[in-house]
Write a structure and sequence with these properties.
single chain; RNA Polymerase Alpha Subunit, Chain A, domain 2; 2 domains; elongated; c-di-AMP_regulator; YbbR; YbbR-like protein
Length: 241
Amino acid sequence: MVQLLLNNWHLKLLSLTFAFMLWLFVMGEQNAEQGYLVPLELKNLPADFIVANEVPNLVDVRISGPRTLLSNIQVSNLSLSVDLRDAQPGITTFRRLEDRLQLPRNLKITRLSPSYVDVKLERLRRKTVPIRLVFSSGLPEGFVIEQVLARPDRATVEGAESEMKTVSEVETEMVDLSRVRESFSLSVPLSYQGTYSRLVEPRAVDAEVRVQPLPAPEPGPAVEPPPAAPENPAVLQDELS
């Protein structure tokens, strides 16, 4: 039996190698499906517009085709883009995203999620509003704030036109007064959380808080106690009679 196996062993090994390579080729040519997360890019946004809605930055793409071709796909080489060059204010729907993805021959897209995107554009506006210094606590008992100054006292924000209509002021980060007993100055960062807007300038203000102790209450005039009443008014009346 061993002699039979070893007879022409080099031809048998060559045949086995060829069969294995043929199996790999057949398996490689079989179709399969694979999913990829492809970046979605918004291109050519006009300078005086802003995107004012949530647009997904990744698209789930299912691609089918020969295994060998699928194995050669690199996500870094896949991209989807939407051209906003001619878009107008309002909502624009971009459909058939699959037509925007370039794939090698013999590969096809079986599913996209989402298959379309809505992009809402609004005009970009700037606005200058007052700065308000925010305190996280009150002063200790017996002290009062005399004056609060912020330099600069106004901030510039920019963003979607509809959001700018609701912005009336910009607040600072909170300043703790719980242990303050005298006037002080400090630099305080501004705190602005816009949905479709951002703080332009300044990033911080120089704040001055003037604190005064409350005056001690003045003593009132002395009050003499009223004379004590007799224990039995009726007896006193009889004696006077």
